[in-house]
Design goal:
The structure is a homodimer of 770-residue chains. Chain A has 770 residues and is an alpha+beta fold. Chain A contains 19 helices and 28 strands. The radius of gyration of chain A is 27 Å and the shape is globular.
Chain lengths: 770, 770
């Protein structure tokens, strides 16, 4: 294993359900903004301070809406044919975050006066961010201030903020200013200003800002209203781009004053542009009438159900318990639930990767959600269906038949300015197909298959059957040239092993879907076959491609060569690479990286996990032994997969160490880049390390398989799995594992390759070493 | 052979020494501007009209100085590490071309009134461009106008223009306006305006414009002066960016009035910026005093000597005769002669490829000049020496030792925004080494080797010895991964056959140079070895790399596989590719091109020419048979090389057809892109087709080898070759070839593998079939 930096010291104290910052340090502000992000899959907001921050402190005060982007022309270093012409960048929207507190002539700031009893807390269970402190102003006035905010899990358009101020040693005027600012920019990537304010409107308590993007045609509405306790007059005013609301309280010692802000946001994607203003104003007002507590409770209720199904309880390791829960909350906060949006690489917590959706969703995040929130997974797959037409166009661009999903996109069109880091990765097609398979397997949702899934499977299969070639020099096998597998350090190779296996899987899956539809949904089958102009000959061709797929194997080494040329690359001892050169992608010229037998991330090893029933344990071990010393894990998507296979082959130290690199990557800021936003795929990987890794969960042959063990440092862990209408609770201890069927009549599972039949309400316990 | 378009109809009438345009057609103006370019290797000028042209006619009115460029930041589609950060673009300098003729209130233009007896003539022998016509103004005044211009071959800073006007049917005022305009732009690639005028100055007859580039730090001076016959007053005036000079003549029928313009141009590269103004003013004035004829004669004398040594006389094919001479003139016009500049891909005739120098110089153009202008070749190689330091930096960028020449550059630094079309082509190092070898072989100029050549050879060898790896999987052979050979449709391959052979050649050549220096220039050897910190161990390592170089051969096919993966690419019938998709590089996504067994340009076939004595005739034939049907010749560098090998293996039809595609590529505008500028490498290739192809010239073992034949359509051809202080005239006829030693005492040559000893002044004749 490449030596990785000692586990960094924890930034935040271990707490199973909380992330607590006990001191505000400006130099960490940028990082904290990502950690303290909130979101509900529709809207996300970085952990910026309500009162603002001086210009010399690093900050990206971003608020984002999933899938709302601006386009800009891509400029290339040199012309190349058939390249994507437009970037898509998720935009920073109207800034509704500001709440400023003044006492007499002094304005509250962490940068003047003195602060004590400071605590900023992200409550993981409740999804609420609070900041409490006692401030002594330069002139000696002391007051307690509590900020609290959440983005509602029960209504995607809604966010609530409040501020509670308690004078401690004085009486006097407390002024609270709330503003909404439409004059916003992106802080990364976009060259031009994206948003133009169309109109502002305000009454005394509330108002709205309506903006539109210059190129991409979105209109965005942001409405606010306010309430005070005790009730005092609020004075609203508007400029051409902003709103401000001022409330003046007469403060007395130990009397707490409340200022509540209700924010509603929508876009022309969901609401007619002409109705946006009234929609957001009405919603804000309606929710303000309901009051803070009712809205908060509705929000918490959604989260309670989420945790009920999704939580992993780890006993004996509060660091990992905290890490996992932080990840699970951030994943929910990042995930689009409407079938039109998806999960950006950095969720809704930053502008890096421009809010783009990748194969990360299907390969890392769907596996996380699938066994607890299957209905969410359906929505994520519906998104893929919604971009099938652009995927068809993308295939045409590459002179291919069928559909080729864009490597990074929001609207379905390829948005990458470097095809060797994007389009070359044809395997994204198989990732989508694989996820459809896993979804239908786990849910029996054949309606989805008939309505949407099969069409995706057919079009991706079609692409595979067109993209390769039967080569005499390979005994007539079907070869796929010039692709890149998951290992982005080897783009433009022939017969990437992962790709060929997954393409074969995709082809067989399409054929299987064809049979299912023909049998169970004959009318839909006919319609679809007509729509796609499919015929028996083409199905046969798919079968031939799959049957004859070239599947590389090196008998001498007993391993699956990553591609045709990998074994001929320059050997290199990756431990000899200076630490400051890692990640190589940021420091070495691509050609330098490509010439070496060096791997960025799990490639063959990922295959051994995804299609695990096609490989023996010995093969898994041999390949792990071969590839592990060649892998730098320069992608955060890598360690989780190595951890899973390490668990499977019994390399428990590797498994645990790789899990550690995954579970607290963002929380401990391993890569010093969390300020850019969280790493959603890696976060999902931490769930996989436990469930697929330590507990050995697989779904071979339509059944749940378990092969659990307990890492030495833990006393036990437990989790739940929904599968085919059932829900199992699994508790793993040192010697035994208990299975309880919470939902469903009976379910047959496999424990250590032995069948176990579960019945509702009963617990079955098996030895881990049986 | 891929069917290529029927030889296009000739655009200009066949004439052995002239290119004549008999009708001005606005729609062809852009193309004609390139064809009627003038230059002297230092300065070049497109064939723009003296009087200007309406805005709706396509035009690139460019004047360029070799090696004078502006830099600009490269913008990439996506970040990649260690990429070049700056473009270099040859700039369009101060426009000194304008001469406008008015008669009373009517200004001459080809776009009003009527024109007859029009002829624009590029005299290839004299390098003079004239335009004659009789113009009848809208009001009925008739006059003869003759424009004439040349860029002096005898003084690089000098250009002369004149205008002769003869009223034919009227008396009246003839006004001639000459201007110099410093407010100029590039028409391609540069995003910003490069040149800023620093000062203008003028007297009545003359003046100067001094400008500087914004980023790259060049100052450019342009001075003019004028003379009239009969002498009339000239009135000069200046704005902040331009000069204008007006002469008024009293014209009478059949009396010719002359207006002469003397232009001097220099830059801060040769002249101190403070002295630029006086330098260009003085030079223009001095030459004006000498008068038109004296300057013209000096210019013509240089060209006469050039033609004396360089011309190929082809009897029986005026089209090819004309094509060859057009090419030979344009090549001289394009070629820097000062050791600091080189030959841009489009010479000084256009802005495409940004005035960059490529391997074209060493591989295509040096072979052309070497046997007639060896002193010029030394200058071209001195340029390479002058950029050895940037080449060292370029190697560091790629984490390599030694030096790696930039693929496209002016100042020595890589200026490409796409490394897969540039840096990946390590073979440029070998091209430079090979040219040094050929130069020393042809001249015995060992001083050059000792002073400059050896250092280049050592540093390039060093790079090769660092770039590869001894691979056990290849029997311990030395393999070179992730490169691109000359075929740019296969970048990032392992063991490109051409590259490995040429790297081996480079390594052995460096060792040989080491031996020569050690023996003949021991002091310089010691200094150089110290400077480069070389030792015996390193020399031994070079030898080991060369001895063990992996040289691919496929015994089954009997061919040299272009690289490790070429034979496994998707087969394709290139004749099935629609014509409008050619060139593929402009129409297909790179990944689409790369997956196929399709070749852009001679690769293995070029190797068979360059290192011809390492391969048997059977091997050449087998490889031609294999690669020819896979080659689209999407690069103009390709057909000439196929023509040469076709000649060698006796495929005379192929040889002739490929020659045709080469010799008149620009003159007949085969690729419809000559408006962008000429194709210098292809032009040089046309010489190679005749000399290396039809006459079979090689220099094996330090001797000149001939194996001549006469293409069917020709009655004879002749050319001269300078070699090791001798000069041979070669006349090839149907049955025999005659060799006459013009210079030198004796020279042993090989005719059809038989030695022939030539003595001065005597002619030896041999049968072509002996």
């Amino acid at each position: 294993m490449r030596k990785f930096h000692q586990n960094r010291e924890a930034i935040y104290p271990f707490d199973e359900w909380k992330i607590v910052e006990t001191k505000f340090e400006p130099r960490f502000n940028h990082r904290s903004e990502s950690i303290f992000s909130l979101g509900n899959g529709y809207m996300g907001m970085r952990g910026t301070l309500e009162e603002g921050i001086p210009g010399d402190v690093q900050s990206t005060p971003g608020i984002y809406i999933n899938g709302i982007y601006e386009t800009e022309p891509i400029i290339y270093g040199e012309f190349m044919a058939c390249q994507p012409q437009e970037y898509q960048s998720m935009i920073n929207i109207t800034d509704w975050r500001s709440l400023r507190v003044s006492v007499e002539n002094e304005e509250f700031s962490l940068f003047q006066g003195t602060v004590r009893d400071y605590a900023r807390t992200l409550d993981l269970k409740q999804g609420v961010l609070t900041r409490k402190l006692i401030w002594t102003s330069p002139q000696g006035r002391q007051l307690r201030i509590v900020f609290e905010r959440f983005i509602s899990q029960s209504n995607q358009h809604l966010a609530l903020m409040r501020c509670a101020v308690t004078p401690l040693n004085f009486s006097g005027t407390i002024t609270i200013r709330s503003s909404v600012n439409g004059d916003v920019n992106n802080f990364h990537h976009l060259r031009d200003k994206a948003l133009q304010v169309l109109s502002t409107t305000c009454t005394n308590e509330g108002g709205a800002v309506i903006s539109e993007t210059k190129n991409s045609g979105f209109t965005i509405g942001c409405g606010v209203t306010h309430r005070t306790y005790p009730k005092v007059p609020i004075m609203g005013s508007a400029t051409t781009t902003s709103l401000e609301f001022i409330a003046k309280f007469q403060g007395k010692p130990d009397q707490t004053l409340f200022f509540h802000k209700f924010i509603a946001v929508s876009t022309s994607r969901e609401t007619h542009p002409q109705k946006l203003q009234s929609f957001v104003l009405d919603l804000a007002e309606e929710r303000a009438e309901q009051g803070w507590e009712k809205n908060k409770q509705a929000h918490i209720n959604v989260l309670a159900k989420y945790w009920e199904d999704t939580d992993i309880q780890i006993e004996g390791d509060p660091a990992l318990q905290q890490g996992f829960r932080f990840n699970a909350l951030q994943l929910l906060q990042s995930t689009g639930r409407d079938g039109k949006t998806n999960i950006a690489a950095k969720g809704l917590t930053g502008e890096y990767y421009e809010g783009h959706y990748f194969w990360d969703t299907e390969t890392y995040i769907i596996p996380f959600f699938l066994y607890s929130q299957p209905e969410l997974v359906r929505k994520l797959l519906e998104y893929r269906y919604s971009i099938l037409d652009p995927a068809r166009q993308n295939a045409r661009r590459m002179r291919n038949k069928g559909a080729l999903f864009a490597w990074r996109t929001i609207n379905g069109h390829e948005a990458s300015g470097n095809f060797l880091g994007s389009t070359v990765q044809y395997h994204i097609n198989a990732a989508v197909a694989y996820a459809i398979h896993k979804y239908v397997e786990a849910t029996d949702d054949f309606d989805f298959l008939a309505e949407k899934g099969a069409e995706i499977l057919f079009e991706t299969a079609r692409c595979w059957a067109d993209r390769g070639v039967f080569l005499e020099s390979r005994g007539g096998r079907y070869c796929i040239n010039e692709v890149c597998g998951p290992d982005e350090y080897k783009p433009g190779v022939n017969n990437n092993c992962y790709t060929n296996y997954m393409a074969q899987f995709n082809l067989y899956l399409a054929l299987k879907a064809g049979h299912i539809l023909k049998e169970r949904f004959p009318e839909q089958y006919k319609l679809l076959v007509d729509k796609l102009d499919l015929n028996e000959e083409e199905f046969k061709q798919w079968e031939k491609c799959a049957d004859l797929m070239y599947l590389p194997f090196d008998p001498e080494l007993g391993i699956f060569p990553q591609d045709d040329s990998f074994l001929d690359k320059d050997p290199i001892d990756i431990d000899s690479i200076p630490y400051e050169d890692i990640p190589l992608v940021a420091n070495w010229h691509p050609l330098v990286i490509w010439r070496y037998q060096v791997i960025k991330q799990a490639d063959v090893i990922l295959l051994l996990f995804l299609l695990g029933d096609q490989f023996t344990l010995e093969e898994k071990k041999a390949n792990f032994d071969f590839y592990e010393p060649r892998t730098t894990h320069d992608s955060s998507l890598s360690p989780a997969i190595y951890s899973i296979i390490a668990s499977e082959v019994g390399y428990y130290d590797y498994a645990y160490n790789y899990f550690m690199q995954t579970a607290r990557l963002d929380l401990d800021d391993y890569n010093k880049n969390v300020w850019q936003g969280i790493h959603t795929a890696c976060m999902a990987g931490s769930w996989m390390c436990v469930v697929n890794g330590f507990a050995g969960v697989r779904t071979y042959g339509g059944k749940l398989w378990f092969k659990p063990y307990l890492p030495d440092k833990w006393s036990r862990y437990s989790f739940k799995i929904k599968f085919r209408g059932c829900q199992v609770k699994v508790v793993v201890e040192k010697e035994t594992t208990s299975y309880t069927l919470l939902v469903g009549d009976t379910l047959e599972i496999m424990h250590n390759e032995q069948p176990v039949t579960l019945t509702q309400g009963h617990t079955q316990t098996r030895g881990n070493h049986e």
